[in-house]
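Re: the pair you flagged

First of the two:
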Amino acid sequence: MKENNTYYTYIMTNYSNSVLYIGVTNNLVRRFLEHKTEFNEKSFTAQYSVHKLVHFECFSSIKDAIAREKQLKAWHRPWKEDLIRKNNPTWDDLSPTILVG
């Protein structure tokens, strides 16, 4: 079995972009689908209908991905919004770019 050496820090939001969720994973497609299908119906993302992937970053080290997740979680909301708008000005759902393959 091939080991996955790519890790992701990601930001998801709801339809109105009013809620932000920041997470880290080694399988962005699987994790996105878990959020989208509300795999855990009691989770924060299920309760707030957080189904739209608006930002993600790739890392070769899990330590770096976790450090970035912690950094982003500590940021003020306007800083997070600026980060999202930098590469995704219209807050489009980026999931089609990760689901193709």
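Second of the two:
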Amino acid sequence: MNSRERILAAINHEPVDRVPTDIWATGEVHQKLNDHFGPDADIREALKVDGLAYVGAEYIGPPLPEVPDDEIVDYWGMRSRALTYEGGVYYEQSFSPLAAAKTIDDLEQYAWPSADWFDYSKMHAAAEAVHDKQAVHCGYMAIFYFHNLLRGLELSLLDPHDDPEFTRHLLSRLSDSFYEHHRRMFEAGDGLIDIAQVTDDFGSQTGPLISIQTFREFYRPHMQRFIDLCRSFNIKVFHHDDGAIRPFLPDLIEMGIDILNPIQSKCPGMEVEPLKADFGDSLCFHGAIDNQEVLPFGTPEDVRAAVRTAIDALASDGTGYILAPCHNIQAVTPVENIIAMYDEGHNYGKF
């Protein structure tokens, strides 16, 4: 099997020759791997990573506003500031463009991103170039997370309770922006797109950030709209959701997600064996190699043991699992641990 066949077979719960693999990592980690394997090395090939090929539309919209040298800004007007930490840099949000909004009129004054701000003309050729070798991934729709980013986390958590009408209007405008942009991308892909993200971040380290009632009333209808859009183009739905989100899984499965990431097994309710037993018939699992303790601070043998545990549990039926770190590999992670993860996955994960 090649990488595309292996990834899609796992998602479809069909037999695979070995557990497919994917990689998420910070820029500093990619640099460390280049330093290790050589500047001309293909990291994916060196680690025998199957991975996904990403395609998207090119931004051609209004000029982005000028920001200080230590900040970046996107077409939503969200600004982030560079903060250093051990071994690297993270950009933490410094400005939420709708934090001062108080009325629906305020929301209407905001420049909601338009699908007309993008050039979709090159997408088909880009997808066609990789389609035979890798599964093609396109898009990112995250209604709750972007509510957080547009308003700031505290305000976004209060909004549904303090002003439901304001919240519904904000989410409706946000949903419309996501929907039309992705509809045009999927049309441009013309049947070559395999996977899209209808994703979010409902979980914390110990449990969900919002109640299931709030989810169902405010966010689920928009997520269902996105999932239905993917389904209309025969695209599989990848759902990223950090933390302890087990209470949400029955709803998410009913809505039609296909792939669940990142499987933070350190969080309550996210233990791998019960997840496979309870939801393995419905979901393909993606991730599960601990990125909080084992990968950055364990030994190579600790990493190998974690890989075996994940494969034994999440691929117990010989399919339905894509091995990957549970979120970006961090800069403090030793290269030998990264190599150990993919080497063990490649060898132990054979069927």
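The longest strand covers residues 88-95.

-B.
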